[in-house]
Design a protein that fits this description.
It contains no helices and 19 strands. The protein is mainly beta. It has a six-stranded mixed beta sheet, with no helix packed on it. Strand 14 and strand 15 form a beta hairpin. 18% of the residues are buried.
């Protein structure tokens, strides 16, 4: 490593890293989509000259790592930025493969409504999949006024728009207005209901 004397002190000059003298190696060059950011750790080696011995650099001391486009399927980039005794930037690409998404189950939905009042069913449902939780639109079946006449509990169906899967919601009719939801598992969205998401028909038969 070269050095430069300045005002009686010896100051080291950082070595420049670039593609011709620095190699960024990944254990794999392709990874399956997971729904989360992928952050494979590289092995970074530096060779000062053609005749010099390669040196393995240390993350945090000699370089920092960042990523670009590393969540969705396609080409992602790992960025190695020199630090300390090294300066410069070297990038290396890797591939994120698209995968088939399979749904294990859907969140359980329970709504409480007042007698004769159309229940405010949610417009989306959380699907638990092999790549994490996905928020999907749902279209609920019509609910007749007859079903809301009696205090008690009944089930109504709905269709998940993206998968055409059929799901059910449990509706409890009480004498007091109230809305609540029962969710199985962790939810990635708020628990707010939006009136008008169900096709509620309040007509006498």
């Amino acid at each position: 490593m070269s050095a430069k004397r300045s005002k009686g002190t010896l100051r080291r000059i950082a070595q420049e890293i670039y593609r011709d003298n620095t190699t960024v190696t990944l254990e794999d060059r392709a990874f399956d989509y997971t729904g989360s950011a992928l952050t494979p750790k590289p092995v970074v080696t530096y060779k000062a000259s053609e005749d010099a011995q390669a040196v393995t650099l240390t993350e945090g001391t000699d370089y920092e790592v960042s990523y670009k486009n590393n969540t969705e399927p396609g080409t992602a980039t790992i960025v190695v930025t020199g630090k300390g005794a090294y300066q410069g930037v070297v990038e290396e690409n890797f591939v994120i493969n698209a995968v088939d998404i399979t749904v294990a189950d859907y969140e359980a939905i329970a709504v409480t409504t007042a007698k004769g009042v159309c229940p405010a069913l949610p417009g989306t449902v959380i699907a638990h999949t092999n790549v994490g939780d996905q928020v999907l639109d749902v279209q609920w079946d019509e609910i007749s006024a007859e079903q809301l006449k009696q205090i008690g509990t009944f089930s109504t169906g709905g269709t998940v728009v993206d998968t055409n899967a059929r799901i059910t919601a449990e509706i409890t009719v009480t004498a007091v207005i109230g809305v609540q939801r029962g969710i199985r598992g962790n939810s990635k969205r708020d628990n707010t209901f939006h009136a008008g998401n169900s096709n509620c028909i309040l007509q006498q038969r």
